[in-house]
Specification:
mainly alpha, 8% strand
Length: 95
């Protein structure tokens, strides 16, 4: 069975390779210690801008929909007094 590799070197050339690998790892850790919190902050700010500045729900308010006749009954949304508007197959208007 082989032991965990880690950064253990067996000779001088191997030692230099392991040192460079450890230095790259340290550089990556230093970068990620800054990049992860910065990425989270940018994501939160982007979500705030989308919700407050672009306001996607504002467009829903402009739609010609009347939700006054909708009722929540248990887990279902039902219309209280449904009415159809338009024409029948023989071109008569519906009431």
């Amino acid at each position: 069975m082989r032991a965990a590799q880690g950064y253990v070197a067996t000779n001088r050339d191997d030692s230099q390779r392991k040192y460079r690998a450890a230095a790259r790892h340290s550089l990556l850790v230093r970068f990620l210690r800054f990049a992860i919190p910065a990425g989270v902050l940018v994501g939160v700010l982007a979500a705030f801008v989308v919700v407050k500045v672009l306001d996607p729900l504002r467009e829903l308010m402009k739609l010609p929909i009347d939700i006054g006749g909708l009722v929540v009954s248990g887990t279902k949304i039902v219309m209280q007094q449904p009415r159809l508007a338009g024409f029948t197959k023989d071109s008569r208007p519906t009431s």
